[in-house]
Description:
Layout: E1 5-11, H1 14-29, E2 43-50, H2 54-61
Antiparallel strand pairs: 1-2
Amino acid sequence: MDGKRVYLVAHFDEGTNQRLADLYGKLVSAGLSGEQTRGIPYHFTLGSFDTASEAHVLARANRFTPVESV
């Protein structure tokens, strides 16, 4: 992929991150392999945009209130 991009991501809460990390550990222990990006918590990528769209993406994303954990 050429050039810089702006990504909109949704992160999980700490409890969910821990459960996913535990599950990943079990999968690795079972012999499965994969590649994880270090330093980035588990997330959903909601979109990828060119850098010229950054202000527009931020303005739209800031209209939403984060959902509280239940």
